[in-house]
Amino acid sequence: MRIAVVTYFYPKAIPFIKQLIDSLHTQSIKEFQLIVFNDGVENGAQYFQLHNIPVSFYDISDSITAIRIRSLHILSQLEFEGYVFVDADDSMSENRVEVASKLLSRNDLVVNDLTLTNATGQIETPSIWSSRIIDGFEFDASFIRNKNIVGLGNTAIKRSVLATILTDRLVMAPDWYIFYQLLEKRNLIAIFTSQCQTWYRQHEGNIAGIRSITKERVEQVIKVKQTHFKALEEEGYHFYEELKKLESCVQQLKRWHETKVKIDVNPFWWEETNFIYE
């Protein structure tokens, strides 16, 4: 299978790009290319001097959602059979391209586990979701209606499914919005694998796998979900029940006086509200 690794480069990712490049050089297979979508880094190509890995570079600027959608359209026109996505501020296990390539030969969409790292790239929590879903777990759009495990950082996608019309709306979780549409419109079955990892760098904007809930975190998740559900409602999907549950969550939050509540699982993205529903 002819494979490309795809990343999205932007100014705040510059301090971390060396770790991504190191993880590309140590991949267990070498027969792949790198495609970089550059959003606002001046002379961005200078950061991608890779040994024996061909690089294609696209300058592209817009909102995050628009960039994602336009890039998927570009990728659908290229001659690769599959794409392995990784965020520019993350890196990955040395077998990720190999495992993703094998799984893409018989699956349209592959989602791999995350290992959390700190700002310097040191591992903090390995395999955060394997305790909840097993290797080979299959799911469709219904699984990610009110939570998410799919992002352009831990997925691999077969090119044949990218020629899908996706809409651009103002949302706070663009990857979730895009992948819900893709799974739903294509009636896709995705597969989860724990055989490879994305080293997922933790910072305030991408909290995952934190086994505690604060009132501020739930308030943030409510805002993300409200914009997400309303955007999908406007596209003709039905999220009335989910929006109703969020209203119940808002009312409960008004009566919530806890500083922090511990939970005994690693939450999926945007799942925190599910733990305080009536």
Describe this structure as you would to a colleague.
With 278 residues, the chain is an alpha/beta fold. The protein folds into two domains: 3-206, Spore Coat Polysaccharide Biosynthesis Protein SpsA, Chain A; 212-275, no CATH class. It is built from six helices and twelve strands. The protein has helices at 17-25, 64-77, 96-104, 174-186, 215-234, 240-254, and strands at 3-9, 32-38, 55-59, 82-85, 91-92, 109-117, 123-125, 138-139, 155-158, 190-201, 212-214, 260-262. The strands form two sheets. Strands 1, 2, 3, 4, 5, 6, 7, 8, 9 and 10 form a ten-stranded mixed β-sheet that branches. It has a two-stranded antiparallel sheet with strand order 11-12. β6 and β7 (123-125) form a beta hairpin. The chain is globular. The N and C termini lie far apart (48 Å).
